[in-house]
């Protein structure tokens, strides 16, 4: 019972963070915020089932708040903590990297990534010291074969095709292709596209090396742009995921995508 009380407080904390994110974006009307607390499935995941997804999701939202407040290094540290709990948080990594590139210079991006890497090293240090090879090969096992039984998106695909490397590769290509299309056509359209952003960062780096522009440059990104980019990037990952545990699909897809981000994306789309 005491553990359930702890998870109940964790749920309320996470809900408060999500409401804060919505208020910062200033996209969804205030009355729609009440929809965030109506998911019985999320209540079950937090208070009854006590999944570790709850901690990962709360840390992820806390990282998003830090990023909205332009605290990029702190946000990356918290984000890395969320990844250490649940690897599905990595679905947010591609849009997050793009936002970092847009907001900071190359030195800032590298230093933030180093901070995130240090968190992973510190958390895994006992295992790295005792069984380094096993830890490094299994902690982030991106090549494992998923069980067809747990598939949510591709239950209709025959199992022999589902477990094949060709199917996994096709989903990876689809995932990367969708990310590139959205990055170029949507997330970087005001800058002239993804390649224009990369080109500008290369020019900044050359100027910094030549000492003609030694000071660091930062760009303040709008909260609406940050949140929309992160949520859409995660949704693309969910679509292309070969297998998802049901609690992840409920906690991430229902809470974050359908309850937390779909209202935001729907209202955002209605204005464009």
TrEMBL record:
Primary location class: endoplasmic reticulum
* Localization terms from the record: Endoplasmic reticulum membrane
UniProt KW Secreted keyword: no
The chain's coiled-coil residues are none
Pathway where this protein functions: Protein modification; protein glycosylation
- Reaction catalysis annotation: an alpha-D-Man-(1->2)-alpha-D-Man-(1->2)-alpha-D-Man-(1->3)-[alpha-D-Man-(1->6)]-beta-D-Man-(1->4)-beta-D-GlcNAc-(1->4)-alpha-D-GlcNAc-diphospho-di-trans,poly-cis-dolichol + a di-trans,poly-cis-dolichyl beta-D-mannosyl phosphate = an alpha-D-Man-(1->2)-alpha-D-Man-(1->2)-alpha-D-Man-(1->3)-[alpha-D-Man-(1->3)-alpha-D-Man-(1->6)]-beta-D-Man-(1->4)-beta-D-GlcNAc-(1->4)-alpha-D-GlcNAc-diphospho-di-trans,poly-cis-dolichol + a di-trans,poly-cis-dolichyl phosphate + H(+)
InterPro entries attached here?
Answer: Glycosyltransferase_ALG3 (IPR007873)
Q: How does it sit in the membrane?
A: Multi-pass membrane protein
Q: Which stretches are transmembrane? A: 6-25, 46-68, 74-94, 106-129, 161-182
Q: Which GO terms describe its cellular component?
A: endoplasmic reticulum membrane
Molecular functions per Gene Ontology: dol-P-Man:Man(5)GlcNAc(2)-PP-Dol alpha-1,3-mannosyltransferase activity
- Tell me which EC number(s) this protein carries: 2.4.1.258
Q: Which UniProt keywords apply?
A: Endoplasmic reticulum, Glycosyltransferase, Membrane, Transferase, Transmembrane, Transmembrane helix
This chain belongs to which protein, by name? dolichyl-P-Man:Man5GlcNAc2-PP-dolichol alpha-1,3-mannosyltransferase
- Organism classification, top ranks? Eukaryota, Viridiplantae, Streptophyta, Embryophyta, Tracheophyta
């Amino acid at each position: 019972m005491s553990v359930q009380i702890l998870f109940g407080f964790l749920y309320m904390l996470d809900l408060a963070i999500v409401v804060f994110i919505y208020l910062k974006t200033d996209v969804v009307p205030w009355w729609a915020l009440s929809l965030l607390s109506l998911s019985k499935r999320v209540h079950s995941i937090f208070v009854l089932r006590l999944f570790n997804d709850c901690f990962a999701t709360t840390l992820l939202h806390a990282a998003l708040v830090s990023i909205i407040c332009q605290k990029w290094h702190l946000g990356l540290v918290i984000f890395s903590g969320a990844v250490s709990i649940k690897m599905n948080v990595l679905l947010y990594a591609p849009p997050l990297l793009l936002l970092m590139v847009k907001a900071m210079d190359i030195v800032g991006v590298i230093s933030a990534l180093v901070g995130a890497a240090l968190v992973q090293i510190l958390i895994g240090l006992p295992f790295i010291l005792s069984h380094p090879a096993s830890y490094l090969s299994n902690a982030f096992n991106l090549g494992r074969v998923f069980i067809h039984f747990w598939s949510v998106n591709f239950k209709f695909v025959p199992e022999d095709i589902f477990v094949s490397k060709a199917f996994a590769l096709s989903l990876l290509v689809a995932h990367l292709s969708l990310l590139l299309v959205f990055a170029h056509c949507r997330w970087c359209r005001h800058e002239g596209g993804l390649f224009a952003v990369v080109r500008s960062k290369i020019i900044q780096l050359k100027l910094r090396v030549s000492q003609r522009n030694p000071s660091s440059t930062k760009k303040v990104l709008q909260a609406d742009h940050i949140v929309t980019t992160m949520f859409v990037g995660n949704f693309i990952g969910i679509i292309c995921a070969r297998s998802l545990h049901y609690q992840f699909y409920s906690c991430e897809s229902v809470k974050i995508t359908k309850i937390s981000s779909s209202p935001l994306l729907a209202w955002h789309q209605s204005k464009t």
